Amino acid sequence: MMAALRWQGLVALAALLLLFGWIWFMAVDPFIKRNIINSAEALTGARVELSSVDLSLFPLGVTLYDMAVADRDKPMRNIFEFTEARIHLDLLKLMLGHVVIDDLSVDALRLGTQRTHSGALPNHARDSGGAESSAAGQLMKQTLARLPDPADILARENLLVVARANDLQDSYAAEQGKIDQLQARLPDARTVQDFEFRTRQLTQGKVKSVDDFVKRRDELVALKKDIHQAQQHVTMTIDQYNISYQILDDKVQTLRQAPADDLKRLKEKYLQGARSLPSVSGLLFGQESEGWVRDGLYWYQRAQPLLQSRQHAPARAEGRNIHFPTAHPLPDFLIRKVGVDVRWSGSQLKATVRNVTTQPERLGRPMTLAIRAENLLDVAGFEVNGVFDRTYPGHRQDAVNFAVHGIALKDVQVLSAEQLPIVMQSAVTELSGDIGINDQQLQAHLTGDFSKVRFTSDADSGLAAEVVHILQQIDQFIVMAEVKGELGEPALSLSSDLDDKLRSQISDRILAREREVEADLSRKLNSRSQEVSAEYQGKLTEFRRRVDTLQATQNQLQQLLDAKVDEFRSQADDQLDKAKRKLKQKLPFGL
Amino acid sequence: MLRMTIKVLRVLNSEAHPAQICGALVLGMIIGLTPLWRFHNLLILVLAFGLRINLSTFFLSWGLFSGIGYLFDPYFDQLGGYLLTQPGLASFWTGLYQSELWRLTRFNHTITLGSLIVSLLLVVPLFWLSHHIVVAYRQHIMQWVMRTRLMRLLMASRLYKAYQTLADLGGGR
């Protein structure tokens, strides 16, 4: 048995393990440092600087020295920096495969500090999403600064006047085509004269014999057929004229109605009077509020990897930990408590975050956040409390409430100079609100109570001056915001007691301008309609004149058909009576 | 490659007992196939260094089976996952999970369990097969190999002599 053992080998193994352990311990700090920097840069999208990292074994922990995290939107500023952060790890849990940080405390934390060099990462541009132009600002520009030009409207809109005029034109061409076809078959004046001449020849003069009578009668019957056919063509043409007249007259009437219909629709679309005015609070604070909502959602989405389970497929050779029910289940990664307590020149900020884990469903407790600050530079203080609950897989229920006291606002450009150069010179604000996120639905209510307000503007005339003049009468007001909807694209609505005062003043100006635009539109539309309808009205009058002419021809033909045939018959009857009398006289005994 | 060939030949041609070579091969196979930072591998290292097995073979086997293990990790993952999620075994695993000592072994990690099960199943067949190969080699092939021109060239090389010197100093056992 002893021969099978190799004691020297065991000693060598122990020595080797100690040597490797020592080398690892000496070399692991840069490795941890690099990992922290990479992870933090991936999370924030900006440069992260970390001076050094120190790993201690008893107790197991890591201390980070001089860490600064840049703001990706303002690369010359840091989101925060601190001098020292201590992380205490649970060694036993680490050996069991769980990274459990019992306590993470930060010293000398400073927010929003200036950087000496840019903190932007290459190829890490943030989607602007049209950040520079706010919807409220655009609406303002559209509504106040530039009401639509009637000529522009008429040029870009599909107008009924144009459509109906075209329709009238097409219909006229079609009807005229039908009439032309019929007119080609109408008897001309010469043909009618010929009919008259031939009828006279056949019906006047003496009938010489029975044969002559029969011959005349047959020719008259043939002529009558021709006259009748010509009369039928005249009748059909008259009918067509009447039908076409009716159709085209209807279309002319519709065209005359078109300007009124167009104007009604265009007024609905472009001239909404006071209704088109956006909320004044939306105009003044919309851009700022949209920026806050956008930033809030951006950071909320950024923080998601810290809040919820990662369901990614394991990398090759990584494997998975299968967990089983146990009295004290633990996630693979957990920070039990992050504590920040910063004091500087009379100011104090205390923040505590608990239960940070990527597997909250295993922990069974939501992440909580509590921040309290006092005596900050431009803010008297604030409190934020939040609960981020992901304990039920696939569901999230987050709630944050906050109150910010005594925000001293100075020279806040509430609108850009090109829209309306209005500056809130000074104000004190109390801000409070609550935010709730239930799965994908966001609902937030914020109230801003502004007091000691002073507005100014560089504009000494025009709308900006008028608005500022009204605003200068106001010492305090309240703005309420509601953010609601899908998390990716929530709708922001703002309301304020400023609205009523400003709305009435501004809407008077707009209504006056709109009346001008409406009159101009009406004039232009009627002019177009009348131009076309007058042309076609003339053509319809010509139709009437043509119908009258045709009626005369038709009457003439009818006279030929009626009167001449009767004359011929009476003459024939007279001839027959004469012949009968002659025959009687020649017969004996007067038979 | 040359170094590896020399090592293999030197081990096979040495006077080491076949069991010492095969034991080293098997232990190297276990540590190579399973994830390195596991509690059981500390035991393997203790066995490898504490027992009179051929360490060269152990390290060669470790390296060789590490490569093989990398290729087979997805299958170990599947096997481990399958075993750990079997309803019939749930109470067994749950029982082990309550003990921190067992959890230190990371038995609930899919690749660890899958690869350990496979390597333990291979212990006896690999030992038996490699033992037969070593014995057969020494009986029937070694003399012929030693006479080949390539082997004579190799034996004349400085590298081989260096290995031989180390072996003479006791490094091979």
Characterize the structure shown.
The complex is a heterodimer of chains A (591) and B (173). Chain A has 591 residues and is an alpha+beta fold. Among the domains of chain A are: 88 residues, no CATH class; 193 residues, no CATH class. Chain A is built from eleven helices and 14 strands. The longest helix of chain A is centred in the last third of the chain and has 89 residues. Chain B has 173 residues and is mainly alpha-helical. Chain B has one domain. Helices cover 81% and strands 0% of the residues of chain B. In chain B, helix 2 runs antiparallel to helix 3. The chains are: A alpha+beta (591), B mainly alpha (173). At the A-B interface, helix 1 of A face helix 3, helix 4, helix 5, helix 6 and helix 7 of B.
One letter per element, helices H and strands E, the order of chain A comes to: HEEEHEEHHHHHHEEHEEEEEHEEH
Order of helices and strands of chain B: HHHHHHHHH
Distance N to C terminus of chain B:
23 Å
The oligomeric state is: heterodimer
Q: How much helix, percentage-wise, in residues of chain B? A: over 70%
Anisotropy-based shape of chain B: elongated
- Radius of gyration of chain B, in angstroms, nearest whole number: 19 Å
Q: Tell me how many strands of chain B there are.
A: 0
Q: What are the low-pLDDT stretches of chain B, counting only 5+ consecutive residues below 50?
A: none
Query: Count of helices of chain B?
Result: 9
Which parts of chain A are unreliable, with pLDDT below 50 for 5 consecutive residues or more? 127-141
Radius of gyration of chain A, CA atoms, in whole angstroms: 49 Å
Task: Report helical residue fraction of chain A.
Answer: 40-55%
**Distance between the amino and carboxyl termini of chain A:** 179 Å
What's the shape of chain A? elongated
Summarize the main sheet of chain B. none
Major sheet description of chain A: 14 strands, mixed
Annotation, overall tally of beta strands of chain A = 14
> Structural class of chain A, please?
alpha+beta
Instruction: Using a beta-carbon cutoff below 8 angstroms, give the protein chain pair with the largest interface and the number of residues from each chain.
Output: A-B, 27 and 33 residues
Average residue-wise pLDDT of chain A = 80
